[in-house]
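Standup notes
- DV: blocked on the single-chain target, sequence here:
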Amino acid sequence: MFQQQDTQTLHLIPTRFAHVFNVQLSLPSQTRYIGKLDEAGEGTFSSKRSEKHLHRKTNSIGVNLELLHRFQFKWIVMFFCCEELVTTKNFMLHHGKVLSFDKAGFERQCFLSLDLWGEEQAIEFERALGEQGELFTDAA
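- DV (later): unblocked, structure below
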């Protein structure tokens, strides 16, 4: 079950569905909704991104870093320019690049290049992570 407490900048706002929360980001310069967190199953964070959200220098899409570290969920689904991009939180944290835009009044985000989004490679990465964990448990 997700922690339903407020963090420094993120607030989970209940919806009419008991397992779905709107994620509200509160910064000194603005407050906005950045997506939905669904605790059903393995958990999913989903959000819509437009062309203006693309980090052009790295050709990547970002997710709030605090969200990735503070809440339990496995899947990330981005609806970007009429396309559904899917990955896992572990894949994003491992392959993504953390960028900070504090001077512009924005939060730290983890950016994943568009060419790295994909359910198949995220599943393969998760499978390899699981196998590594099994190796270490067998050694103990």
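- Follow-up: The helical segments are 65-70, 89-95, 119-139.
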